[in-house]
């Protein structure tokens, strides 16, 4: 039978300690990655949103939305979020993209990404939330020139070339003059 004292007498080789350290530490020269939430905007288009600006992701019952009259058509209304009023926007409609949210009478719940930019909080209602993905932020390119004619061009922060994933600029969405946010958070 082997005794514990036999293990303490045999020194561990320095090479194996070095190997263990190299396994536990990140590889040298690895670029820092940034997390993005992928969501579906319409039937064919998905987008990314940096998780830093996301306060919550939730499913919201349509019955919990209080419609507000005489607002921009993309504004669905308000709901309760952590004891405060949360303005809800049909993101696809705000960006000028057709969406199934226009036919809400068939839906009972909606997916919502709650974004917080400075002191402004806004619920972005979308058809579907996918998953969190990691990208190297240094690989983010300026929006492609072929998008300049699209109505959502001002809301695009950039794209990742390898899969042409568009990255939404949450600050541009929240600060959209058509939403008149100065009325939202007063």
Automatic annotation (TrEMBL):
It comes from the Bacteria. Residues 33-179 form the CheW-like domain. SUPFAM superfamilies: CheW-like (SSF50341). It holds the Pfam family CheW. SMART domains: CheW (SM00260). Gene3D superfamilies: CheA-289, Domain 4. One of its GO terms (biological process) is signal transduction. GO terms for cellular component: cytosol. This is CheW-like domain-containing protein. The lineage of its organism: Bacteria, Bacillati, Cyanobacteriota, Cyanophyceae, Leptolyngbyales.
């Amino acid at each position: 039978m082997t005794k514990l004292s036999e293990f303490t007498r045999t020194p561990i080789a320095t090479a194996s300690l070095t190997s263990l350290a190299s396994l536990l530490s990140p590889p040298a020269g690895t670029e820092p990655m940034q997390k993005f939430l992928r969501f579906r905007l319409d039937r064919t288009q998905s987008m990314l949103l940096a998780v830093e600006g996301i306060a919550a992701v939730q499913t919201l019952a349509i019955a919990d939305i209080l419609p507000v009259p005489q607002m921009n058509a993309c504004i669905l209304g308000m709901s309760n979020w952590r004891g405060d009023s949360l303005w809800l926007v049909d993101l696809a409609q705000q960006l000028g993209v057709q969406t199934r949210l226009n036919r809400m009478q068939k839906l009972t719940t909606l997916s919502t990404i709650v974004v917080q930019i400075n002191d402004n909080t806004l619920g972005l209602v979308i058809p579907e939330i996918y998953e969190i993905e990691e990208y190297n932020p240094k690989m983010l390119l300026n929006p492609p020139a072929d998008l300049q004619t699209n109505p959502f061009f001002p809301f695009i922060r950039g794209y990742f070339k390898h899969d042409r994933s568009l990255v939404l600029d949450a600050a541009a969405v929240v600060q959209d003059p058509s939403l008149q946010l100065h009325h939202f958070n007063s």
